[in-house]
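**Folding the chain**
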Amino acid sequence: MAGPKSTDGGTTPIVGKSAKSGASPQGSGRFRSLVHRLTGRLPRLRVRTVVLSAVAVVVLVGGGVWVLYGSPWLRVQKVGVSGVEVLDADEVRTAAAVPLGTPLASVDTDAVQTRLSRLLPRIDQIEVVRSWPSGIGLKIVERKPVLLVEKGGKFIEVDEEAVRFATVDRAPSGIPVLELTPRRTVGPQRFAGEELTLAAVDVVAAVPTPVVGRTRTVKVRSYDSITLELADGRTVDWGSSELGEEKGAALTALMKAAPKARHFDVSVPTAPASAVS
């Protein structure tokens, strides 16, 4: 069979696949060379990027550390005190002993709290805060006396947790004096002074507010023998510190029902009693 012929009568040459696609051996070689150069550079580019990133991190971290600890900008210039009532602010600053000029970030706030608690027992709660860029704040909550213990002409203040926290020359107004006169008992009914003080604190917490303000003395002979003496001479037999809420309600009702009574007994709140004399 005869092959295809050209228009001039000659045989038409067969065109190869590479010739149809327009590619040439020379062009293909250039492409492979370009790919080789690019892939050869990639590892070097990655290494350079990692190195530059590491340098940047070191510079940033080092700069941050210098700003916090070495620069003159973030240093303690003032110590503020808030929440004090009886204590003096300068007294609190002295006990806190926060050195001015020290880097703010290096102040040991836990150590400051420990010093204040040890040196100023009147302080109940302490919060030490950094006030950027140059301050330390001392937020104080003072203990409040609910009872007084007289000793040597002075008065020891006792708070709601039965903690004896301060001694003052004059009794604060409206705070009853605690008299512990425990009677001698034989057997397991004996209570220590701390337990009796805590019982008295519980009683004061349960006594109606208007009555607490008029209470002069809280006498404790035993756990179940606690008596209140009011400023006008009236007395309240409270009994133990148990059922405080019920006893407080019974006392309020008795005082309204018998305003001229001189003695009230709420030791059994379900059967309260009062007497004129």
About this structure: Residues 234 and 262 are 5 Å apart (CA to CA). Residues 25-70 form the longest helix (46 residues).
